[in-house]
Amino acid sequence: MTLLISAWTIGLILSLLALGVYISYRVFKFADITADGSITFGAAVAASMITHGVHPVTSSITAFLAGCVAGLCTGVLHTRFRINQLLSGILVMTALYSINLHVMGSSNVPLLSVTTLTTYAQSLGRWMTGHDSATLLGWPVSARDFGSLILVSAIVLVIALIAWLFFNTNLGSAMRASGDNEQMIRALGVSVESMIVLGLCISNGLVAFAGALLAQYQGFADVQMGIGMIVWGLASVIIGRALIGTDSVGAALTGTIMGSVLFRLIIALALRWGLNPNDLKLVTAIFVFGALVLPALIKPSLRNVKRHAAAS
Amino acid sequence: MLQLRDLQKTFFEGTPNEVRALRGVSLEIEEGSFVIVIGTNGSGKSTLLNAVAGSFPVDRGTIDIAGKDVTRWPEHRRASMIGRVFQNPFSGTAPTMTVAENLALSARRGLSRGLGRLLPARIQNDLRDRVATLNMQLETRMHNPIGTLSGGQRQALTLLMATWRRPDLLLLDEHTAALDPKSADQIVRLTERIVSEHRLTTLMVTHSMQQAATLGDRIVMMNHGSVHADYAGAHRRHVRAEDLIRRFDEIRRDERLDVSAAELLRDAYV
After folding, report:
1. Is the dihedral of CA A26, A198, A203, A41 positive or negative?
2. Which residues of chain B from 131 to 170 reach within 8 Å of chain A, CB to CB?
3. Mutating which of B50, B88, B113, B143 best tests the A interface, going by the most A Cβ atoms within 10 A?
4. Strand bridging mode B34-39 / B218-223
5. Residue-level pLDDT at B258
6. What pTM value is reported for the model?
7. Hey, is the C-beta of B76 within 8 angstroms of any chain A C-beta?
8. Burial A195-225 (b: 16+ CB within 10 A, else e)
9. Angle of helix A229-244 versus helix A249-272 axis, rounded to 10
10. Which residues of chain A are within 8 Å of residue B89 when distances are taken between CB atoms?
11. Which chain B residues are within 8 Å of A183, Cβ to Cβ?
């Protein structure tokens, strides 16, 4: 049960990463590898601020802003200097590796002996259950795990709601349209370049915030923790798409969060059943490859039918 | 309203693919006039429209719209004054967004876009009423993704979107060329109605001599990146489709003459 609860919690934390990837990848069709660097950046900023005695909430919000700056850099490299999307992301991600080491001062910052959001989550859990441990559906659960799940769920719910509201504003809709049809939205007076920069800002802000939460939940920040995270986010977004299948914003956001949780649960079970942890990234990459290629292989005839229907 | 002075544009300059698309186009269009632009393939008519819209910077010349020099304005800034409909019916709408969302986006063409709701309840009726004026029963499909509609329906909506806020200038780039004859006819009639209703200054590129002869109050014929003929006023009223076709034949004959003359010279002197 502890395994499932912790998988569920990490899945929810990483759903913020997935929401970030949703913005870059689904809204803008921009495979933004900056995420690998900005999740660590968020963790690094939050961890070193917390160890210097800053309040965990302030630290986490600063981590969000730090991620925004990383996204801003990628966006500016791409739109102002006309550097290819992937390369802009790679440049910023690489630069962030050194920056993260500087921010943390070493390759790993432990957070076990300081007050973090997890400390608050534990108090919350204790307050809600009345004990250090509780039983959930007949299984024992520690107050820390229970409180973390509640706190993270609340945070994700609020952020998803804000994201949904944002994408239904004039600005947020213009952003969606920029990814959907550049020519059209430009003809309606929107600078697609500004939209990309703003979108990548928000995207990487969310990713960094996920990093800050993850570091506090697992009790440390590590300079290597971001490797392959973009693929993780893509997997969540793709699973979400498969689960929900429509293009409406609310459905896509819900699907992405569900995708992240489901993916994390699958991984937890696979590890439990003996998957070598070293193979995790390989399996994830193969999964994403399969998810990208299989639909085209399975349903080419169906797609043709649809295209003809749309053309006629 | 629109003033073009000596517009020049060369694509791929200095390469074997060099194309001198605009070779000094000067044109003045008065407020409220409906100008049809015709020309052979590669004559520069679409390039002219794109230059006015700001899709690329021109090499030389100036563009004034409603008294403002917009030559150095980026495309999205010019959009505050210009409504556009493209040849490809899929270019003018965002496919995954709903009909209502697309229209609401166009209702803020050229205005700032902040954190107000895109579709507040109070504008929904207005959206539906204006879509109903198309007589295409699209008002029942306001919340369907626009990508599920046909090319003709999407083009009608694009036209509505381009003119939702009255533009100083409406640019129509062969906007019926990719449609079946019935839809094309429907769009032509809609265009006529909207342009006359709002008395829009319009620049319309077309391949159809029939459209050229029946629509608009002025015809500009382009060839080789410059204005070849300009029928306005009383002159315009006597132009029939056959006259335009004859003029095209003349152009073609002249070109053939050029080639054969060149061959003659080569044979004689080289």
Report:
1. positive
2. 145, 147-148, 150-151, 161-162
3. B113
4. parallel
5. 72
6. 0.90
7. yes
8. bbbbbbbbbbbbbbbbbbbbbbbbeebbbeb
9. 120
10. none
11. 86, 91-92
- In this structure, what DSSP letter does residue B111 have? S
Report the C-alpha gap between A173 and B178 in whole angstroms.
Answer: 28
Report the distance separating Cα A186 and Cα B38, nearest Å: 26
SS3 A241: helix
Domain ranges of chain B: 2-239
Which residue of chain B is at minimal alpha-carbon distance from A178? B94
Q: For chain A, say whether B79 makes contact (Cβ under 8 Å).
A: yes
pLDDT band with cut points at 50, 70 and 90 for residue B234: confident
At residue A4, does pLDDT exceed 90?
A: no
Query: Model confidence over A193-240: pLDDT tens digits?
Result: 999 999 999 999 999 999 999 999 999 999 999 999 999 999 999 888
**Chain A residue set in contact with B, beta carbons under 8 Å:** 166, 168-174, 176-177, 180-181, 183-192, 247, 310-312
Residue at B196: amino acid letter: S
CATH code of the domain occupying B2-239: 3.40.50.300
Interface contact flag, B114 A312, Cβ < 8 Å: no
Q: Give the one of B84, B94, B116 whose C-beta lies nearest to A177's C-beta.
A: B94
Contacts of A185 in chain B (CB under 8 A): 94, 105
Alpha carbon distance A114, A43 (integer Å): 15
Any long-range contacts for A52-59 (C-beta under 8 Å, 24+ apart)? A56/A115, A56/A116, A56/A117, A56/A119, A56/A120, A56/A216, A57/A117, A59/A212
Question: H or E segment at B58?
Answer: none
Domain boundaries, chain A: 2-226
Taking CA–CA distances from B106, the nearest residue in chain A reads A188
Q: Write down the residue that tokens 């061959």 correspond to.
A: B263
pLDDT in the model for residue A186: 95
| Cα–Cα dist A98/A82, whole Å | 24
pLDDT tens-place string over residues B201-214: 999 999 888 888 88
Which residues of A fall within a CB distance of 8 Å from B147? 310
The ipTM is 0.89
